[in-house]
Amino acid sequence: MKVIKLYAPCDGEINDITAMDDEVFSSKSLGDGFCITPSSNTFYPVFKSGTIPMIFETKHAIYFQNEDINLLMHIGIDTVKLNGQGFSTHKEVGEKFKLTDKIVDVDLKLLKNKNISSQTALVIEEDILKKYQLTKTLTSGVVKAGTLIGQLTLEADDVSLKKSALKAKIINQAASDFLKQVGGPENFSDYRNCLTRLRFTIIDKNLVDSEAISQNRLVKGLVWNGSELQIVIGSEVRKVKNAIDELMNHGSKTITNQGKTKIVWYRRLLQFVVAVVVPCLPLMFYTGLSSGVAALFQQLGWAKPGWEGLGDLDPFSAFLIINSRVGFMLLGVFFGYTTAKYFNANPILALLICLTLSSRLLFGVEWPIIANVFGERNISWKGYENSVLIYIIAVIGYAYLNRWVEKWMPDSVSNIFTPIVSVGVTISVAFFVVGPFVTLFEELLAKGVLVSLKIPFGIGPLIVAFLLQPLVLTGAHLALSTIVMQSMINTGEASIYFVCVGLAAFGQGGAVLGAAIRSKDLAFKRNAYGIFPIATFFGITEPALYAITLPKGKPFVSACTAAGIGGFIAGLLNLEMNNYTGNGVFSALGFNSIANIWIYLALGFGVVGLALVFTLLTYRERPDEFKSVVYLNKHLKNQVKENNQVTLDALNEISLTIQAKQEFINQIENNIILGQKNQEKLNKVNKTQTSSKTSITSEKNQILLTTLENQALSIKNDLDLQLKELTTCQNQWIGEINNLIDSLEFKNEKVKTKVVKKYENKIKSLNLNYGV
């Protein structure tokens, strides 16, 4: 057994911790210890030696550590509101100390003048991995700094509890229990942690099981402050908060073998892409429109083009360029931020990583690693502002590295050293390793595209035009376009590359229009119609990609296919662009020949039409019932034939069973569309009334408002009933079809189960998801 002696940190009057005027300390919620009322301004350590793992930013609370025992010295009650005023520290976090070292000076007169108690709590924190016995040699009387006031006798460690896996299990279980015991995620509007407490802003106190929370082994006490529930935990609180974050952000995505369907990898990837990109769509809308406005002003002669020499331009022209470029130049930084949110990493530290890799200090600076790759460019250490992949890779790496470091970093120093290790390593690896590899990948990709363009008979441009929008997803198109542009400037040769770029944008525009026409969701329609001109006329495809075509799948393929066909025709016509003059329809000005301008525009809008037709032919918001039945019957006939059974009448009966419900489903869809339109009218009337400067509403408007509200409520109630009826009908249909399939008397049960499952999935896919 080891003995650790405790000493008075200052001159003053010593008492038991129960003498503290703060109930959190006096109730021993944070642990046992002492109360000392200081009479001297200088405070010394409580241990004979050790380290300082933490100093609160307001300097009123300091942790001492010895033999993995943490002792909190909390100077004064409510001194946190002084924000450090009157406190002067002599030691830094991580420094070692001995008994005679000064730790902090406190202006006791200032505390007295501000009517703030100077009572100081000395609290030995109970770590779940340690057991100890506290012996108090002094609990009353006047003491001098350095006087022995007690000792800690450490008992044998509980080996099983020392295992980090068990510790993590305890914390994860506590996080899960807390979420249930506070009434579930729907019963709190916010949660956070401070130095020692987990805080929930509770909606309904009656749903909180305070007794169950108090019995948790990590909990040292509960405090209610209005609607805020404070769970006193101690230094483990940050890990509990992180575990709750994990459950809140990814709990619904957790895949188990008990009744949950495993998500295939490409759908998981699509979920990630949507989660990262969708929050950035407003940024892309703004920057895309700004690019279009800048290009229009430049073509009309109202502003001057140029990027390299902004100082040579007038302020208005320079502003237009900056306003239209910065959003896309730093798009990777914003993607890094949303990636951090997706992986539940610290978004501020993720921004630090991304902004360091794109720092303005690195503009125009590079340190070559491989000179003259393919005879033209260098692979270098440099700023990576035009990339996207590097930021996403760096932040994902940081998220996983940070979790790993947290597992073994001691709790007492984790807040300080975990970010130092995880951020420092991430930035270093990203700058020195990931960055050059991503650059090399982009260079190889660019070289491959340039070589592909030379494949004869239009095949090369077909491939490039088809693949350009998938390249946008990686961000490699930025480097690729830069390389091609530099080659055109240096050699003076025309290139078909930017023709393919324009056709790819036209394809996305046509697919967006097709998806808008097919959709029965009014909100989706409005969004798509707004994006259509951005992609078609201004050539900015990111909003179309991430908001419309990629999430829907088939419109994306339709757009790429139409662009590929356009590229094939352009290749046959040898349609090459002489200069790069912008995106969208403005790119047509890059041809020296008037005839080529008209050919390019005709071909571009032809691609719009092709993508529109392909999307209309292939895209549905839900499966077509008739085609589904035809497919299933064909499949089932093959199964029947394999089992030497001829019962085609039963198959026809199955067809009628499903098709007979088509009218019912269409009726629900029509009612939903009516409800959406009615809701829009209601919103407009409400908006008009809200913005009205008069307090009296006309009788006509009031009657209209009441009528619309009643109609909306009636339709919503009808829809609720019809959707419930649809679910009931689906279950009945499945039962009917199961009976019919049973009559086929399959010899192979596995084949029978497979057939039944296919029918069930098709029927369930008829569910409607349009909200009113």
TrEMBL record:
PTS EIIA type-1 domain segment(s): 22-126
Molecular function via GO: kinase activity; protein-N(PI)-phosphohistidine-sugar phosphotransferase activity; protein-phosphocysteine-sugar phosphotransferase activity
Main location: membrane
Coiled coil: none
Spans traversing the lipid bilayer: 269-296, 316-337, 349-371, 383-401, 413-438, 458-484, 496-517, 529-549, 556-577, 597-619
GO biological process: phosphoenolpyruvate-dependent sugar phosphotransferase system
Keywords: Cell membrane, Kinase, Membrane, Phosphotransferase system, Sugar transport, Transferase, Transmembrane, Transmembrane helix, Transport
CDD domains per UniProt: PTS_IIB_glc
One of the Pfam families matching this protein, by short name: PTS_EIIC
Subcellular location: Cell membrane
Protein name as catalogued: PTS system, beta-glucoside-specific IIA component
Protein source organism: Spiroplasma alleghenense
Lineage: Bacteria, Bacillati, Mycoplasmatota, Mollicutes, Entomoplasmatales
